Amino acid sequence: MRIPDAAAVSSVGSAAYEDEGPVLVHRHAIGQTGMMENSGLCLFCDEEPFVLSPTPPPPPARASPSSSPPPSMVSSAAVEDRDVMLHDLLRREHRYLPCHGYSHQLHRSSYLPAARTRAIQYIVLVCNRLNLATGTAFNAVNYLDRFISMTCTVRWEAWMMELLSVACLSTASKMDEVFMPSLHDLQV
């Protein structure tokens, strides 16, 4: 591909150049094959070559990051908004914890502690096998405990705990992992 010099491009319109060879598009040239090739020019759609639009003035120089404004200059509305949000998050935090007395409820059952242990072993095994993040395993166990604590009246069976552990691991991987494993990959 040939790229003309600046004088030739400025004297020739884009339509004339299009007839001669590739059409120039933002930092790439589209050749006769329709494929984009690297180009040193930076043009947008139908702009004339080498005609620059005015650049906006540079932003005013800011003080160095280490010299932040003193706390007295921070807006009181911003501080109040931050305090309201923090208070709201702390107020709602209890909804995301296992129910009160979960540990006692867990050990009162004859089947539940062993089933929970097997579910956690499964979660750790799959996380290791698939190289999932440690946080994924912690979140999966957290989801498992939260669900068990909300359903204290359920008579747990083995298949229920297995299904719950797969669901918790799948949900945790959707939240934490960049590439989520398929349900087929979660089988042991």
From TrEMBL:
Keywords: Cell cycle, Cell division, Cyclin. InterPro entries: Cyclin, Cyclin-like_sf, Cyclin_N, Cyclins_cyclin-box. Residues 54-72 have a biased composition (Pro residues). One of its GO terms (biological process) is cell division. Gene3D superfamilies: Cyclin-like. Residues 87-187 form the Cyclin N-terminal domain. It comes from the Eukaryota. Residues 54-77 are annotated as: Disordered. This is Cyclin N-terminal domain-containing protein.
